[in-house]
């Protein structure tokens, strides 16, 4: 994380860089969610023919949305200060070969092994999946092409469906933000 000299660090750990923007984002998001949830619960239900409490609640729309905007802006500021280390991420993943358990389990099922999940659970839960255990599991696969593919897998190059899911979510969020921006511009004019 980028160091900003004007920001205060931890009161007891001078070496620590506080994630102040993420903390502010989380706090504002919590307030926004609480208010917006109240609107959702309160406004669709009218207790009496003359229930005037709705108008009081409606006056807080701006507050709830403002806290949402503050949360988003703080999140962006925080993200701009973070610079992931590819080397460190790769090292961490390489030390956790159990991430391949998903690929192994799916492949075992394709090979007709019914208790694939249980077998992988036995060798991977609560501890790292060893190279020996990985090879033992891979040898259960009957399809030679699939077996070869599994032997080539490494934790750092196995992503499953993550890239597809991330791309879909980025597109969805981008479209929603564009729509909100257009609506905001139309209301402002």
In short:
The protein is an all-alpha fold. It has helices spanning 20-42, 53-58, 61-80, 86-94, 101-110, 116-124, 131-138, 144-152, 162-188.
The ordered H/E elements are: HHHHHHHHH
* N- and C-termini, Cα separation: 39 Å
- Helix residue percentage: 55-70%
| Total domains | 2
Number-wise, the strands total 0
Summing up helix and strand content along with how strands pair, one would put the structural category as mainly alpha
Overall average pLDDT: 83
Tell the overall outline.
Answer: extended
Count of alpha and pi helical runs: 9
Report the C-alpha radius of gyration, rounded: 25 Å
How is the main sheet built?
Answer: none
Sequence stretches where pLDDT stays below 50 over 5 or more residues: none
The fraction of residues assigned to DSSP E strands is under 5%
Oligomer: single chain
Layout of SSEs?
Layout: H1 20-42, H2 53-58, H3 61-80, H4 86-94, H5 101-110, H6 116-124, H7 131-138, H8 144-152, H9 162-188
Structural description of this entry:
By secondary structure, this protein is mainly alpha-helical. It folds into two domains: 1-45 and 55-83; 90-157, Orthogonal Bundle (Ribonucleotide Reductase Protein R1, domain 1). The protein is built from nine helices and no strands. It is extended and about 70 Å long. The chain starts with 19 loop residues before the first helix and ends with a helix.
